[in-house]
């Protein structure tokens, strides 16, 4: 008895038409109830899983139109040429000119990155430094990190820059109630 033949072109056709699909949708398109069969057929194709939605969605490289960061979305589902959220966050921070604050990375990737960044630092894949009152995530390479920090400090020094250090007119005056609230934050304090 000969087993049923499943063809990867059914997945290709489905993903060209729908752009993205869940495993359940791919199983229906392929005519099987075995996830293993779908994975075997996907392995014949250049496919991606989403880094958003816990990797629930699939697409093909030739369907996706990745931007300069290697990101692409369809509806509210995000994909990356780097793969998972961890790999994507690491690659984007490592290659950035001035590192990233978590909020900036959240806005770029359209997902929360706090836990991913914590794990990347814990695994020594990224570093973090307190700068401008926030944690700045940078590359692990010392020369690259030094350049990122220098670039970020220049950005922070620009008047009116978001997250910039306050100028003298907005700094608290010694012995004022505001001084007492921020004495632990030296970037807000005026030298005596």
Topology of this protein?
Elements: H1 8-18, E1 21-22, H2 23-30, H3 35-42, E2 47-49, E3 57-60, E4 71-74, E5 77-80, H4 85-94, E6 100-101, H5 102-109, H6 114-122, E7 127-131, E8 134-138, H7 142-157, H8 177-181
Antiparallel strand pairs: 1-3, 2-3, 4-5, 6-8, 7-8
Helix pairs in contact: 4-6
Give a structural overview.
With 192 residues, the protein is α+β, with helices and mostly antiparallel strands. It has two domains: 8-64 and 71-79, Orthogonal Bundle (Arc Repressor Mutant, subunit A), CATH 1.10.10; 84-163, Orthogonal Bundle (Arc Repressor Mutant, subunit A). It is 39% helix and 15% strand. The protein has eight helices and eight strands. It has helices spanning 8-18, 23-30, 35-42, 85-94, 102-109, 114-122, 142-157, 177-181; strands at residues 21-22, 47-49, 57-60, 71-74, 77-80, 100-101, 127-131, 134-138. The strands form three sheets. A three-stranded antiparallel beta sheet has the order 1-3-2. Strands 6-8-7 form a three-stranded antiparallel beta sheet. It is elongated. Mean pLDDT is 85; it is low at 164-192.
